[in-house]
Amino acid sequence: MKIDGTPYRSVWVDSLDGWSVHIIDQTKLPWAVDILRLATLADAAHAIRSMQVRGAPLIGAVAAYGLALALREDAGTHAMERDAVLLKETRPTAVNLAWAIDRMLAALRPLPQPERVAAAYVEAGRIADEDVAQCEAIGRNGLKLIQDLAATKGRRINILTHCNAGWLATVDWGTALAPIYMAHDSGIDVHVWVDETRPRNQGAFLTAFELGKHGVPHTVIVDNAGGHLMQHGAVDMVIVGTDRVTRTGDVANKIGTYLKALAAHDNNVPFWVALPSTTIDWTVRDGVNEIPIEERSATEVTTITGRALDGSLATIRVVPTASHAANPAFDVTPARLVTGLITERGCCDASEPGLLALFPEHA
Ligand code: MRU
Hints:
The chain is α/β, with parallel strands linked by helices. It is built from twelve helices and 18 strands.
């Protein structure tokens, strides 16, 4: 996707040195487009932990490159296994991260030490390229849903989304936003309600940035506005991304997603979840009780960072100093509240039979 006419992926290998890894620092968006260079395992782990990169598919791809960087430092088996664990532990909820590291280890373990670094870059590159292809296919499959809705309604289509599941959260295209970009590009009149997504404001900062750069009409709303808009017919469908889907169709996503699903259910608004198959955890059946939910720093709740009126960046406290704050970063929407899943192989019910019809190799 493009920023001011320049095409970007959200992670790429330096074309001159052939090994260092570049990312867009998402903690600086939308105020600045800062490109960071990751040269070590520690750089990659910090980028994931501090959310310089975030979004389930992207942290998987960056972790894969992080293991390649780690192998440049020590390609021995003991170090490789240790560094794989370190990377896996950087963020617990998005299963793409563990999936990517396991895939890297499966490719690297059988190899003699001198061959591991080159092979790691090849495998990480495949993971990144496959993510782009999967997200593009998600876009095409979701586009059909928006086309059908546009044909039925015969007017502007209003889509609500939560957090950021756009190209910044993947290697390119995005998951929830890919169908929206394709609908907009094909001439359908789409408008996006963007949940601000406190505490880190991925909606207000990242989704609004992406949509704005692509020229997609959008309006940022506070997280609590969605139910009201649905009651008044202002939302035709919800599309969100996800960090982990169980084999039974339960959906973990950014905190607040569950409340949007409840409101959508109460108002007969279709609630779709877009995901590449790398986000499915085939080992888990009960999302509410089995998916680990990341608890992040209370500082994310008690402070907010933005641009002051004089143009400088400022972090201010928004909670009394004596108050405690809690910060669960994700919640789980039970499958019964999900209209359907949009995957790279097509759309299906949020259920085990639905998923297995598209992915019979996991039966
Ligand atoms: O904490 P984040 O910003 O990494 O959370 C991201 C989300 O919840 C996204 O909706 C999800 O990863 C889908 S990404 C295509």
